[in-house]
Amino acid sequence: MQTAVQKWFAKRFRVDQSKILKQSDILVFCYQQGFLYLVLIVITFIAGINYANNLILGFCFLISAVLCISFYLTFKQLHQLKVEIIYPEVGQVGHFLVLKLQFRQLHMSTRFLQIRTEHQQQHMLFNQHDQQFELIFEPKQRGEFELPAIHIYSTYPFGLVRAWTYFYLQRKIWIAPNTVSIELDDQQQSQMNQHDLHEFRELRNFREGDGLQSVSWKQFARGQGLFVKVFENEMDQQRLMIDYADIPCQGHEQKLNWMMSLVELCEQRQETFALVLPHASLEYGSGEKQSIQARRLLAQA
Asked: What is the DSSP string of 61-125?
């Protein structure tokens, strides 16, 4: 029975990118103290009838009206609230995964919301047209990460009634493997920074970000243009092939951890790299897009 109810909730309240909360998306019912409040209403009603006391009956109708108003005010806390979900491109083991919720409302009003997931609960005061809220998760293993259901509710103003809704997120996020420590000794570092004059390869046009020490001043002095000297060792530095078969480890996960470390190293040095896995590959490239694609492939390996 419980499984059937959960499936029904997941189907009714599923969301992918954004959603505007309408009447059919919001559930409203008495909340904790509200049940005691109902008992008070019943007691005062019975006492007013038994003793034929109009004052007690009037008090009963007054507190009943307060409960009815609470239903409306609490419902308005969620009604017509637009929630947009901003997913991270890819996550990584050992790093926090941040899911952003962008709240929007057409008419300025103050909303007191509570946001709860499987392992966390936070309060939120929403009194602007746009406001962003972050949920933080910590993935424990590589692979596909299924986001838990998000429970948004409010008990404003008296705590007698609760209005709530659910967000069952349809998108799943890939989690890349963790890294291992890769350190270069002083000799390797100095070799990487030295030019071998006997391994000159070619001249290429000057690009933004190139160092002036690599400029070919002879060609510049002859009026031939601004060129940069490219050496064989520089070509090797700037183009790195990260091949699964060449990683000096035995275990599959250890190989992926090493490859993830090399991807981060290339990202920090802004170097061009390619990725080769047993069942997938990534052509040479650089930049943020290249790093995201590499992380996703490592997560799916």
From this structure: HHHHHHHHHHHHHHHHTTTT-EEEEE--S-EETTS-EEEEEEEE-SS---EEEEEE-SS-EEEEE
